[in-house]
Amino acid sequence: EVQLVESGGGLEQPGGSLRLSCAASGFTFNDFAMHWVRRGPGKGLEWVSGISWNSGNIGYADSVKGRFTISRDNAKKSLYLQMSSLRVEDTALYYCVKDTAAALSNWFDPWGQGTLVTVSS
Amino acid sequence: DIQMTQSPSSLSASVGDRVTITCRASQSISRYLNWYQHKPGKAPKVLMYAASKLESGVPSRFRGSGSGTDFTLTISSLQPEDFATYYCQQSYNMPYTFGQGTILEIK
User: Fold this and answer.
1) Mean pLDDT, range A17-34, rounded to an integer
2) Going by DSSP bridges, is the β-strand pair B19-25/B10-13 parallel, antiparallel, or unpaired?
3) What is the nearest CA distance from A76 to chain B, expressed in angstroms?
4) Of A47, A62, A100, the CB nearest to B98
5) Average pLDDT taken over every residue of chain B
6) Which of A23, A85, A91, B19 has a CA 20 to 30 Å removed from the CA of B7?
7) How far apart are CA B23 and CA B42, in angstroms?
8) 3-state SS string over chain A?
9) pLDDT in tens, A67-79
10) Size of interface A-B (CB pairs under 8 A)
């Protein structure tokens, strides 16, 4: 069974940093692209960032470009999101999501349960 | 960036009803359109991919159609477990944008 377990969320002040992690199991991690998707309070789903199987192709939403960095460690079967210069509007539940292929540009399945990030002073 | 516009934003319906949700892309995305269902407290799950392909395990009462810029998700006979929020998402190019969501509520 595929499992994606996020961690690293919490309360941070505006301007601060957090690092999210996602531990993957139940599939060959280095065969698939991965993504982060978030859902803010009272908002819909927003794709945040994606990374191909070998980290050769990476993309970001405009809202986080230059502030967030996605990375992966295939040996550790883990996905990361380094978040810096945090803003109140980054407050959201962050989902780790598996792509259905090695390259990007496919659909997302499955999703983790999410880790909550709250940015507030 | 490609903008995805869903309609309606919310919908009230009864068990057994047929409902249709539409999704429009700001430019052609061929058939790179996916649909997700999201229930409170649960992880979203994919229902349809590539506009009209049913994800394994999803009931056949769900049907997707469209190509280019206009897409629809139809539920032929609503069941109690179908009341949720539905999102379309384009995977044509990055950033992979979602529609704003359609909340399907029990009438």
Assistant:
1) 97
2) unpaired
3) 24
4) A47
5) 96
6) A91
7) 23
8) CCEEEEECCEEECCCCCEEEEEEEECCCHHHCCEEEEEECCCCCEEEEEEECCCCCCEEECCCCCCCEEEEEECCCCEEEEEECCCCHHHCEEEEEEEECCCCCCCCEEEECCCEEEEECC
9) 999 999 999 999 9
10) 67
Q: What is the pLDDT of residues A83-110, one digit of tens each?
A: 999 999 999 999 999 999 887 778 999 9
Q: Reduce the secondary structure of A52-78 to three states and give it as a string.
A: CCCCCCEEECCCCCCCEEEEEECCCCE
Q: What are the tokens at A3?
A: 């499992």
The CA distance from B61 to the nearest CA of chain A, in Å, is: 20
d(CA A50, CA A39): 16
Look at chain B and count its residues. 107
Residues written for chain A:
121
Q: How far is residue B7's CA from residue B79's CA, in Å, rounded to a whole number?
A: 21
The answer for residues whose C-beta is within 8 angstroms of residue A37's C-beta and 6 or more apart is: A45, A46, A47, A48, A94, A95, A97, A108, A111, B44
| CA atoms of B53 and A75, how far apart (whole Å) | 33
B43, A110: Cβ pair inside 8 Å? yes
